[in-house]
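Section 3.1: Structural characterization of target chains.
Under the original work plan, the team committed to producing a structural model for every single-chain target entering the pipeline before any wet-lab resources were allocated. The record below documents one such target. The sequence was received from the expression subgroup and is listed exactly as submitted; it comprises 204 residues.
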Amino acid sequence: MTTAEIGRLAGYSTQQVRDLERLGILPAAERARNGYRQYEHRHLAALRAYRALAVAIGPVPARRLMPVLLTSPLDVAAERIDDLHAALARDRARVREARRGLDAVLADTRVTADFDDRDAMTIGELAQALGVRTSALRHWESEGLVIPERLPATQTRRYRASAIAEARIVAALRGGGYRIPEIAGVLDRLAHRRRRRAGTGDAR
């Protein structure tokens, strides 16, 4: 196949095909005597695999992964795919955590009744539970997203139910690519709904 032919079959322009080959996303093409590239079905399979990966995990991670898949032994390539599945599982777990956090933020009376002071968390404990750095929690505090209590004697941060729940939501949204101003707007709307005891459909 020529560059134009393989591009047409895979849904890319000729320049995109050349760029993807240069980046190692598809194997280097053989050259005919006239210097033109000649592609085979393995090249088409690589282009289609890249397109599917880009949809599944994003173009940048797919661009980094494809050269590894093309040049690695089968067991190494399979391990990298397993890593992707594990990352998706972690993302799903974070979404569930955000949903639970949302329930806790909105069910204010239930949280107050059920929360045991012994369940309050330090900044280190909360950071470990969320899989973030303590500096991230401090930044969220400075932005007004998650406000912990301060112990009077030492000014040590102490996260109770509402702060823990909001931190879950912030962590999940940050993991999903939301920016700080967007998250602040979401939390403001949630607080407004909680005060009015409005439905949570939009927030969910």
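The chain is about 65% helix and 5% strand.
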